[in-house]
């Protein structure tokens, strides 16, 4: 079915975990003006699978996961999330976004709302939850990310690590089926990276489907089912974590790994 | 003794540190002292304030029939009651949210006085100028109405929406017709008219301006074009032209019978003009909200309207409070332009009374203009102060 000329190790359609696809991309191209950000990306992610995406800056990693909840639109190819195809149809986009949580590099918490209101806004407005239920759920999530005592504060009063954990709780409050992480620890001071990664590891253990753009190779080694290396908008190499780090095939992968490890 | 030594030391350090400072201090002292002396002499010695005292009601309410003034008194009390109710709701909600007011009664009273002193001083001055007891009774009535409103607001705290809707609906539906009944709109005048035009235009131009700002960013080309041309047209025309057009030129385009009275028309002119400016201010605010905010809200599944109302607009408006209030203060003062179409607003009254038989030829314009200027200043300064409070409350620049 897939491009037979591609070497086996660059085939991103062989899933791990449950083997049942929840995210499917076929031959996706994306342009910013004349610049091609994604080149013929084909990929499948299984339910409960954790896929780490790495690669040099400008390689299209962020663009890739931003296409999955259509913060960017793709120009060619097919993207299906949990059986819903992403197109111009605004209703489909809304369905996919409801089922997909996203965590940003710069947190993007809503600075004018208290932590608890950051978390309850979407469940109340989109899921039509009652205030009481939404707040109970929010407190439960804040306990999960270890900061229930910060509920009544404003985001600006929290440390970076705490803010990112609130952002994770905010995304989880919609009970998404997939979580997308766009360099969640890149904007953090080193001593705060651990607390955020711990929350993400816990999430992975509970069986959340995750796509994580990150340079934290320790995290990838420990948690990822597969690691995907991108360069110049292309999928260069995909493999299970152990294999990827010990025995990369491509020269570009080797070079990248030698630079960051 | 120590205090005086402290003061002397302070002066020596800050005013007379060296020869140049000493010279500057003396020159500045002479200038300031001279101006202050002349101003105080004018207010307390040479100023002939009888003209204000004799025409006080003309300054306040224009030609409103004296037998019908009870309507105004009731209206002011109703507004006080409504304001008190809103304040009560706010206080209750804050108390419910667990924000404890730690001030005692004395401190609270002091804060209210510090907050409203310009208004209090002017009201007291007006009461002292009045020759009768009635204004004192009205003032007392307003005070009672505010307190009662506040108590009601606190009691109804949980039904805040109900209170706000009732207040918002009562003013246009009940109050305005009741006020206009004895005297058509077009005969209104004085401070009352100035306040009417300013408040109505402020309340009306704000939502219009926000809609225009959103329209200008819309993805629908027709809506965008409409918003842009509205803003660019009305911003490009001098306000005084719009004021003149509202009375004279509209009659050429539309049948006179279909048009509302000229005060309504001129209020619409102020609304439209200010809305064009508000639209640009709000658009600037919308652009100041980072893209990441929209993206985060979209990623949570919020639709375009909810992204705007819950995430972008609140942050945008918070960022532009100073500019918005500046625009409103401009509007308040620009209402004086209605003199060009012969409407007797506060400033026109100040000019007209000097031609009365009793006062003609006495060059009393300084007195009447200073009086009018004081009323405008108090209004503008109060707006400015309240906006600073609002900014502090919303934590602008802090979080």
Report on this structure.
The complex is a heterodimer of chains A (261) and B (399). Chain A is an alpha/beta fold and 261 residues long. Chain A is built from nine helices and ten strands. Chain B contains 18 helices and no strands. Chain B is mainly alpha-helical and 399 residues long. In chain B, helix 13 runs antiparallel to helix 16. The two termini of chain B are 46 Å apart. The model of chain B has no long low-confidence stretch (mean pLDDT 88). Chains A and B meet through helix 2, strand 6, helix 3 and helix 5 of A and helix 14 and helix 15 of B.
Structural class of chain A: alpha/beta
Compute the gyration radius of chain B: what is it? 25 Å
Strand order of the largest sheet of chain A: 6-7-8-3-9-10
Structural class of chain B: mainly alpha
Which short descriptors sum up this protein?
heterodimer, A: 261 residues, alpha/beta, 6-stranded mixed β-sheet, 10 strands, 36% helix, globular, B: 399 residues, mainly alpha
Brief overview:
The complex is a heterodimer of chains A (261) and B (399). Chain A is α/β, with parallel strands linked by helices.
Strand and helix layout:
The complex is a heterodimer of chains A (261) and B (399).
Chain A: E1 21-32, E2 35-46, E3 50-54, H1 61-68, E4 76-81, E5 84-85, H2 90-99, E6 100-103, H3 115-125, H4 131-144, H5 160-172, E7 178-182, H6 190-205, E8 209-213, H7 217-223, E9 226-231, E10 234-240, H8 241-246, H9 251-260
Parallel strand pairs in A: 3-8, 3-9, 6-7, 7-8
Antiparallel strand pairs in A: 1-2, 1-4, 4-5, 9-10
Chain B: H1 2-14, H2 19-46, H3 50-54, H4 56-61, H5 69-96, H6 105-129, H7 134-155, H8 160-180, H9 190-216, H10 221-236, H11 239-247, H12 250-253, H13 262-288, H14 291-299, H15 304-319, H16 321-334, H17 346-352, H18 365-394
Helix pairs in contact in B: 5-7, 5-8, 6-18, 9-10, 9-13, 9-16, 9-17, 10-13, 11-13, 13-15, 13-16, 14-15, 16-18, 17-18
